[in-house]
Design brief:
ARSD Arylsulfatase; about 250 residues; Arylsulfatase, C-terminal domain; Sulfatase_N; two-stranded antiparallel ribbon
């Protein structure tokens, strides 16, 4: 990186191929991790991100550069090679990549660094979206989002700077392909986050949390289950979506 624009605003977008099958890893990092090829990939990605941050610091841009590290989806549970699981791990969250509504596929890490402006060690526990990158970058550049259309994203800066306590997102719609699978409602006055699942994939095996026999969960058809009334979860108290709330006791 030569940073020829370091004296004026610039946007650097780095889309890493790492932690995605076929897990191409350079020889330097092969065998480094006790977690196999996937772990090797994570370590190489970590090195690349660190190298980039070091260059930003050496160019004197550390305190004037907004850095946002994120993923476009959760771990792909069905990615396997023999008995080796190649698609990451989603912790307590159910499901994974390609499953329209389950948290394991849509709840991703978002790590932000801007030492000259944002305080360290703050955590934002509010619904945000990768769609928020666009209005955030526009605001940082001193511009204005287009006024001739609806913009789904919201600037992250008020949450990060502490001038707002709650996300501006009230509803978030979670699709699988072109099919709506779930909707999240952020009830701002109480801080509660509800989620309703209208369609869910049929896991194979049943309690596996993934579609191992198919290799990928379908978005519609006989590989899905439609719910009427929808499955309802209080994500504030049940982030792992283990216990759907009974419709007759949840009139709201």
């Amino acid at each position: 990186f030569d940073f020829r624009n370091k004296h004026r605003p610039f946007l650097l977008f780095v889309s890493l191929l790492h932690v995605h099958t076929p897990l191409v890893t350079t020889e330097k990092f092969l065998g480094r991790s006790k977690h196999g090829l996937y772990g090797d990939n994570v370590e190489e990605m970590d090195w690349m991100v660190g190298d980039l941050l070091d260059i930003i610091s050496k160019k004197g841009l550390k305190n004037t550069t907004f850095v946002y590290f994120a993923s476009d989806h959760g771990g792909a549970l069905e990615a396997r090679s023999g008995n080796s699981q190649l698609g990451g791990w989603n912790g307590i969250y159910k499901g994974g990549k390609g499953m329209g509504g389950w948290e394991g596929g849509i709840r991703v890490p978002g790590i932000i660094r801007w030492p000259g402006v944002l305080p360290a060690d703050i955590a934002v526990d509010e619904p945000t979206s990768l769609m928020d990158i666009f209005p955030t970058v526009i605001q940082l550049a001193g511009g204005a989002v287009p006024q001739d259309r609806v913009i789904d994203g919201r600037s992250l800066l008020p949450l990060l700077q502490g001038t707002a306590q709650h996300s501006e997102h009230e509803f978030m719609f979670h699709y699988c392909g072109m099919f709506l699978h779930a909707v999240r409602w952020h009830q701002k006055d109480s801080g509660t986050v509800w989620k309703a699942h209208y369609t869910t994939p049929v896991f194979q095996p049943q309690d596996s949390g993934a579609c191992f026999k198919r290799g990928l969960c379908p978005c519609f058809g006989d590989g899905t289950t439609r719910h009427d009334p929808p499955l309802l979860f209080d994500l504030s108290r049940d982030p792992s979506e283990a216990s759907p709330l009974p419709a007759d006791t949840e009139p709201l």
